[in-house]
Design goal:
Blueprint (H helix, E strand, L loop, with lengths): L1 H15 L17 H10 L6 H17 L4 H17 L6 H16 L6 H18 L1 H22 L4 H18 L3
Helix pairs in contact: 1-4, 1-8, 2-3, 3-4, 4-5, 4-6, 5-6, 6-7, 6-8, 7-8
Length: 181
Amino acid sequence: MKTIISNLAFAFFFIASMSFSASAQTTKEKPLDMKQQISACLSQMQAPTPENLLNCIAQMEQIEAQFPDSVQPKYQAVRLCLIFAVMNPQNDQADGLAKAADRRISQLRKMKTASPSDIYTLQGFYLTALIVKDPMKEGPVYYRDALDCFDKALQLDPNNAFARQLKARFVEEANRITGTK
């Protein structure tokens, strides 16, 4: 079972991670704009170690503090927190990061510029993190809700690649764990 959880966590990281180009150069005269800061932060995630994830989460929180009314820093912070929680479900910090992700999802729901499809995707990913933490206990509780979140995200935006990838991996792993097809 530990191997299954480990494989699920590893797979979710690669699905959840995005490659960004840090083409922006910092100068003393011109600070990086928000998109450049986010790209620079995420480009450092070449090796998804717990330490790298935590550093990137801290950087994203700083970006979020600079741009409190912007969706992207919150969205990326949620993704990073959930990647950490899924990859390191038994780590002492996983629960706190999952709770922080849930709080940010609530904040995103209140933002008019946030995509409802993205919010449902993040909610499904949050529920997935809860399941990965304790599959025997949380799986039966959250499985249907997580799947419903991914379905709703895809109903709202059929082109939401992140939701599609997470749903496919979620179903694949659930079928593998339960032995169904």
